[in-house]
Amino acid sequence: MATLTSEKQGMAAYRAPSLFQPHQARKALRDAHEGKIPPLLGLYLGLSAVPNARFVAPMAFDAVWVDWEHSSCNVETMTSMVHELIFMSEGKTIPFVRVPGHDHAAIGYALDAGASIVIPQVETVEQAQFVVSSAKFGTKSKGTRSAPPFRLIPGLTDMSIDSSKTLHQNLNEQAAVMIQIETLEGINNLDAILTAVPDIDAVWLGTLDARISMNLPGNGGMGGTEQEWVDAVATYENTMKKHNKPSAGFAIGDKDTMIKMGKGKSFLMVTADVMGLAGLAGGLQAAREVYAIPGKGDSNSGSNGTV
């Protein structure tokens, strides 16, 4: 399949035959990793609400991260957010759901909704095998995922990309499975994990959790200069190069910061809903200065609409 993506299309070039199916996210990540397309640029939705997903969908982010792990979000809300992101973007946006832990059912719910998935806190080969098995159909893929009987309508939404394969074999190749490595144990085990579980599509180094787990200051997830941290990051990066796997992470800030944070990555969260909302405090402070009572604040400020 030729790469057809553009800024206006977003990820529409990787749409499935039906919007009820997950995108060809595995291929999109691989194409970005191989330099065929730019890195996927995404929005982190830390506050789970259907209107938020509906509002941002037409903006055509390549990806939107739905944080089911760290928000008060139930199955219905998560599913509706995924549908809004796919349908209201007309397929231009790939939803990635960070599931709450390694629960087999939660992984199935997110995939059934049509999302790709992010699995947090993966530390061992056994954990990686379990979560990838939960995401795949059929013993050939070592899968234990249950096939949803009413998710796709025969003849209407169950079309296959590759007619030589079954529907469920196609679905195995569409949705992406990204894992998060968030401890030193996970970093040290990553080589064994990627060797034993090649169906992992991308890896995100969770710098905030990793640093905290190492008893280092969190630094807002911005890393640090401690030798043990520098060594851990080097181990992670060398392992990713060895296995030729797409890497993912945040890239937020000014141009130079984005370039630094995004170096070598194929999947980037470049902004967040919580950052936009946090910025409202600046508007409030500016208003307080404008409307301060003369003599009790800025002497040039007005009050009650007068100067």
- SS element count, helices: 12
How big is the Rg? 21 Å
Strand percentage lies at: 5-15%
User: How would you describe the shape?
Assistant: globular
How would you describe this structure to a colleague?
The structure is a single chain. Helix 5 (125-134) packs across helix 7 (184-196). It is built from 12 helices and 8 strands. The protein has helices at residues 25-33, 50-56, 75-88, 104-113, 125-134, 167-174, 184-196, 207-213, 227-243, 255-262, 273-278, 280-290, and strands at residues 40-45, 63-67, 94-98, 116-119, 177-181, 202-205, 247-250, 267-272. It is globular. 39% of the residues lie in helices and 13% in strands. The model is unreliable at 1-6 and 299-303 (pLDDT under 50). Strands 1-2-3-4-5-6-7-8 form an 8-stranded parallel barrel, surrounded by 6 helices. The N and C termini lie far apart (65 Å). The protein is of the alpha/beta class and 307 residues long.
Condensed summary:
This protein is α/β, with parallel strands linked by helices and about 300 residues long. About 40% of the residues lie in helices and about 15% in strands.
Q: Can you give keywords for this protein?
A:
alpha/beta, disordered N terminus, 12 helices, 39% helix, 307 residues, 8 strands, 13% strand, eight-stranded parallel β-barrel
